[in-house]
Design brief:
With 274 residues, the chain is mainly alpha-helical. The protein has one domain (2-268). It is built from 11 helices and no strands. α2 (19-51) runs antiparallel to α3 and α2 (19-51) packs across α6. It is globular. The two termini are 25 Å apart.
Length: 274
Amino acid sequence: MKKYLAIAKTLFKAQIVYRFDVLMTALGTVWRVVFAWILWGAVFAAPAAASGAAASLTIGGFTFQEMLGYYVVASFLASLDLSGGVSGEVSTRVRDGSFSKYMVIPASPQFHFLAQNLGASAYYAAFSVAVACACAFFFRVQPVHANSPAQLLLALLILLPGLAFMVCYHFFVGILAFKFQDVGFFLHVQGNLIEFATGAIVPLALLPEGAMAVIRFLPFPYVTYMPAMLICGRAGVAEGLFGLAVVAVWLAVILFVNRCTYRRLRIKFDGVGV
C-alpha cells in the first residue's frame, strides 16, 4: 500500500510542472458551464416568452438556475476524471515496447496507473473548485446544496470508486493492445458514449424512464451524475446507497477481469527487457 501512496504523491507533485494541462482542464470546466448557459438559456427562453413565467418554468424537474447549478457541480466532478489518457498511454506503451518497465517493477501495473491517476486528480481538484466557484459567481448561479450531511458523504463515497472504476476500465481498453494492433477507433467511439452516460453532457434525469431503468445498473452514472445530484440535493439517500452498491460491484468485477486479462495477454508481449 505504501508504494502506491508514494506513486500518488509523486504524481501529485509532478502536476506543478504541467501547468498548461491544469489551465486547459480549468478552461474545460468553464466551457461546460458556458455551454449550459447558452444551450439551456435558449431552451428555457422560448417557453418562458410564451407563458411569461420564466422563474417557475421547469424542464425535467429543473429550473434554469437549478440546471446551471447542476452543470457547475457536474463540471467540477468531470474535471477530476483524468482516466481518459490511461487507455491511450497503455496501448501506446504496449505497441512501442516501453510497457515492459511496468512488468518488472514490484507493483501491479493496474494499481500503478490507478495510484498515479488519483494523485493527479487530487491536485486538479483544488483548481477545479476555484474555477467552479468563479463560474457560479459570474453566471449568478443560486447556491445548491445537499439537504443533509448524509447526501454529501454518499456523494464522496460514490465518487471515489467511480473514479477508480474509470481508471480500471481504461486500463482494460489499453491492454487490449496486447491482442489487437490498434484500438484507436474503439477509444474514439466509446469516449463519446461514456461522456454522455456519465451525465457530464446533459443530466440523465432528462432521459426516458425506460432508458434510466437500464442506465442505473451501469457504473458510468455514478462518476458524475449521481454525485452531482446528491450534492445539489436532488437525489435521496436511498438512491445514493443503491448507486454505491452498484459502483462497488462494478469496481470489484473490473478489477478481477483486468487481473485475468492481463495475466493471459501479457505472455504475447515481446517488448524490450522482457
